[in-house]
Amino acid sequence: MKKTSERVFKNGNSKAISLSKQTIQLVDFEVGDKVEVQEMNGGLFITKKEDTIKDRITNFFKKGGKYTESEIDFGESVGREI
User: Fold this and answer.
1) 35, 38, 78, 82: least buried by Cβ within 10 Å?
2) What is the DSSP letter of 6?
3) C-alpha–C-alpha distance, residues 18 and 37, integer Å
4) pLDDT (tens digit, 9 = 90+) per residue, 34-80?
């Protein structure tokens, strides 16, 4: 496990933690990622929060995504399908 030294600073009425480029690359974070923070053994454990399916769909369309799958042919109708 690698150790890095970061700093806490005041940001408006809140406090923030500034992470170095080295730390960001170490944990593969990107600007805008959501994180989960847990208290563990007197310290903090920070992990990247996985997007919900709703977040993933919203991001897909916000980034100009389009559904481009072609139709699937399931063969001849065998009942009352349209």
Assistant:
1) 82
2) -
3) 15
4) 899 999 999 889 998 888 899 888 888 888 887 777 888 888 888 88
Question: Rounded CA gap, 75 and 41, in Å?
Answer: 60
Greatest alpha-carbon span in the chain: 68
For the record, the structure tokens of 27 come out as 């944990």
Q: What is the pTM of this model?
A: 0.53
Give buried/exposed letters for 47-60 (b at 16+ CB in 10 A, else e): eeeeeeeeeeeeee
Domains and CATH numbers, the chain: 7-62 (2.10.260.10)
3-state secondary structure (DSSP) of residue 8: strand
